[in-house]
Amino acid sequence: MTDIFGQTLNLNYGLLLPEIVLLLSSMLVIGVDAFKRQLKVSGNVPVGLALSGLLVALALSILQVNVDEDFARLVQIDSFTSFFRILFIAITLVIIVGSHEYIEKSVSHVGEFYGLLLLATVGAMLMASARELLTAYLAIELLSFSLYIAVSLARSDQRSGEASLKYVLLGGVASASLLYGLSMIYGVTGATQYHEISAVLSAGDTGLTTPLLLGLVLIIVGLGFKASAVPFHMWTPDAYEGAPIPVTAFLSATSKAATIALLLRWFGGPLLPIASDWQFILSGLAVATMVVGNLVALQQVNIKRLLAYSSIGQMGYMLMAIVAVGSGYASDATSAVLVHLAGYIITNLLVFISVTHFFNQTGQEEINSFKGLAQSNPYLALMITAGLFSLAGMPLLVGFFTKFILFQAVVSAGHLGLVTIAVVASTVSLYYYLMVIRQMYLYEPEDGTEQWKLSLTGYLTTLTLFVSLVVFGLWGTPLYAAADAAASMF
Amino acid sequence: MIPIEYFLTLGAILFGLGLFGVLSRRSAILILMAVELMLAGVSINFIAFASYLDTDAFSGLIFALFVITVAAAEVGLALGIVLRLFRERRTSNVDEASDMRW
Amino acid sequence: MLKRIPLPAQFDRIIIGGGITVGAIGVPLGIVLVTLVAFGVISAPEMVFFVAAIIVILGALGCVLLPNIVHAALSLTATLIGVAALYLLLMSEFLALVQVLVYGGGVVLLLLFGLMMTNAQDDPVVTDGSQKPFAFLLVSLLIGTFITLLLSGDWGNPTAHVVPFELFGERLFREFALPIIIVAVLLDVAITGALVNVHTASNDLPEESE
Which chain B residues contact residue C146 at CB under 8 A? Predict the structure, then answer.
């Protein structure tokens, strides 16, 4: 088929099969759940459908690893896309398997919940693959809309609705700001395709430097909200605290990773020719994010809020690497970000799934309720400790390896000052992670030392994540190779 | 003919007034209305650019069409959440819904 | 003989008050604008632009300043219809139509329903946050910066062109088929969201005896 200008359009829907499978299975999950009584199906059918949809989509994405084609010039299926597709599907899989007991118990509208998680995954995948501004914007909204609702689904918890309202209002303002920025980019370049924007901007002076700068600032504000960069992070702790724990895990993993993917596509692609204009803004954001995120985390008493601020701090490290992308080290810095992102996600999921199981047993989420966990459940205490140490960047765990690669890439791009701040911030973070670990190991449990166990799926997911934590920490080559392949197109 | 700058100025003013509404209002629904103003400013920008500068490809018109659709969907979604909050607490003011700090 | 339809007292007040306000602002402005056109200072399309712009800005001011929320919602309608007029000036009839249908018909109605079911139930007058003066200062600075930055660019001297209807549709449905699918899913998400939030969860209801 050709477009109105007579150029050929590649409308090969096979390229989008993973997305299509996820869409269909989400509709199926919601539909089957709505007519559960009439269809006389057991309660496990929705989760089974969701998982099988995810597995099929995962298989299809793995089959497309070597593809490099565009769909109607709107999305590009290349190695970068494949990396993120596999990452996002794996995150959703792990979250659903690891916390389905929590979801059945503490989430209202279970079927819709699974459906929304799948749709959010589709949005994230499209964010990573878009090569045109409109598609990217709609993908952002698909992810955000699904999450606005998912946040509001915690059962009989008043904080949930409040968190969702704050998230949706601030998200709306952020979208408006992002759109104004996009309109400026469009007005200056007259294009919405990434490669056309890049061509116009690298051709030199457009006579419209100031509107372009305005657009750039507004885009960074809008994406800063989505990435919860300081000073646009106000919604993050509340949304994290009010949301059901699996959604919090999803927010800290998929939503962050998708924003990073989009930032890499934009700042490593169409906006790269004007790197000198945005580098200093992003450096400022990165520093503020690292410092504030890690300092405010010190005062938190709720584990979800603590992890929220910790994830804000982690976001700062990755923003720093995007500054490095602008310094002409696009390929190296991108691959470093991808490695760190994968390591961070494995670690964060381990912590969140452990916390989910802790909540299932105790119904508590205060940090001092972790007292004596080492006696009542030594396995879970070990998992949380490993996760927190890896987040802090202790050697032998994946967090150390990936942080090392990330910092090294930023240093070689010539931003030594940024890395110094990052190392200091990272040391501070060790302190608040240790506070949680101290509760678990140095105190006696408050209500006796009754032992308890996880469910089978709980053991399965935490053990898998723990093993990959240690294995990738000692032997990071596969991770590095995958990230390198994904970053090769920059 | 009307210079394009007129439209851009008006878009900026609408965007700013919307932001003012977001910052100064307390009722969630009024904040939503202010967000609509901001989006109207954005749509004016897109359409002005499309019909003045990009008449061959007019991507801005298509962009504006999608912006309008998404904005309408967002209102529906947010109103659902506001109604639920109102049922739980008898208020739709964002600063009274503050079990957690802002 | 026609009987006067009994209207609520408030309705009278709104009509009379609104009429006086519109008249007091509109008549002098109209006279000024027509004089300017007559003397050739501004062109006729520019005059239409100014009329629409004044409606838009006054409506927006009303929307963010009026203490009565129903009045605020109505002045939002004025703004959105004014914006539709601007789209007509920008030669895109289709989007003007969509604007009127979606906003004037759908969104404002939805917002009014929302207001009626929450705030307006007891008392339609709201107080604003205490940060209002600060917000005003910040936003005036911001608008000033925006306009300065926009106008310091060299936009050339372009003129508006009409986009043919058929071309618009053809481009939309050929090239942008994927965004249309995404938007369809997005609307589906929004409906799901509105449903799950206003409905009590089925697993929160007491079990039915079967």
Answer: 12, 15-16
